[in-house]
């Protein structure tokens, strides 16, 4: 069943002297429990699609639906995890997480217990009273995930959340987040420049064209990769074949005309 639906979505940005067509006729769905990645050329509009799905900006034409209900504004059923952790440096880790519950007016013992359970799953129970400055980049991103999941969103939007991390930390965090989302039966839409990351984590991959962005290709990742953790998937014999296939499609995209 489709949790998120984009139907004939277009987005134009207006300046004083010009109109820029960013998104053109984008159509796709993300089913409940599915992990879908969006890749494409730099600047093609990947993050714009996430912002539209989050209700942060309005689309120009078409429909964007969450469980058949139009998305017209931000929604606590949608969680958004960014490249930066954006933790408040003057608050402890526990206070940062509680702040998320305060904002949505859901701070109670039950929800606090849920977030502490998540913190334990992130192997950070002993850091609840630490300040953000005392944590590594990977730890901060784990806290950011707990804060994002605090509202128990049905849809999680991930905007290159691993891009600022070193490679080893990135691989470990991919595995941890992938496992957590599967255990919590969450639905996710990831934007990434990393083809390997998209293959390792996703059920499907959408390839966008140059701006104005349209969907050029859909790739359904085979079960032998989907059933593995991201780290294990990278070691599978067919992984490199999929990388080469998607890389070639990305390389063959027509450059943006001027």
UniProtKB/TrEMBL annotation:
Alphabetized GO MF terms: ATP binding; ATP hydrolysis activity
Keywords assigned by UniProt, alphabetized: ATP-binding, Nucleotide-binding, Transport
Keyword ATP-binding: yes
Record-annotated ABC transporter domain positions: 4-235
CDD domains assigned: ABC_NrtD_SsuB_transporters
InterPro entries named in the record: AAA+_ATPase, ABC_transporter-like_ATP-bd, ABC_transporter-like_CS, ABC_transporter_ATP-bind, P-loop_NTPase
Keyword Nucleotide-binding: yes
Gene3D superfamilies xref list: P-loop containing nucleotide triphosphate hydrolases
Protein name: NitT/TauT family transport system ATP-binding protein
Organism encoding this protein: Geomicrobium halophilum
């Amino acid at each position: 069943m489709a949790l998120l639906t984009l139907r004939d979505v277009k987005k134009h940005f207006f300046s004083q002297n010009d109109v820029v067509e960013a998104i053109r006729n984008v159509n796709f769905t993300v089913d409940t429990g599915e992990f879908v990645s969006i890749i494409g050329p730099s600047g093609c509009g990947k993050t714009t699609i996430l912002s539209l799905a989050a209700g942060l900006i309005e689309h120009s034409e078409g429909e964007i639906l969450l469980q058949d209900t139009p998305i017209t504004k931000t929604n606590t059923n949608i969680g958004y995890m960014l490249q930066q952790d954006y933790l408040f440096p003057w608050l402890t880790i526990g206070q940062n997480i509680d702040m998320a519950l305060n904002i949505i007016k859901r701070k109670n013992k039950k929800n606090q217990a849920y977030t502490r359970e998540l913190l334990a799953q992130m192997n950070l129970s002993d850091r609840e009273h630490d300040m953000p400055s005392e944590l590594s980049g990977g730890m901060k991103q784990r806290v950011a995930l707990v804060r994002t999941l605090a509202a128990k969103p049905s849809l999680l939007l991930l905007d290159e959340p691993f891009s600022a991390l070193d490679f080893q930390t990135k691989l470990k965090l991919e595995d941890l987040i992938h496992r957590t989302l599967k255990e919590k039966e969450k639905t996710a839409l990831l934007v990434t420049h990393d083809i390997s990351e998209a293959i390792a984590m996703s059920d499907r991959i959408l390839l966008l064209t140059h701006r104005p962005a349209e969907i050029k290709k859909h790739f359904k990742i085979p079960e032998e990769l989907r059933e593995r953790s991201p780290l294990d998937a990278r070691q599978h014999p067919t992984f490199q074949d999929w990388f080469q296939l998607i890389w070639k499609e990305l390389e063959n995209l027509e450059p943006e005309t001027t």
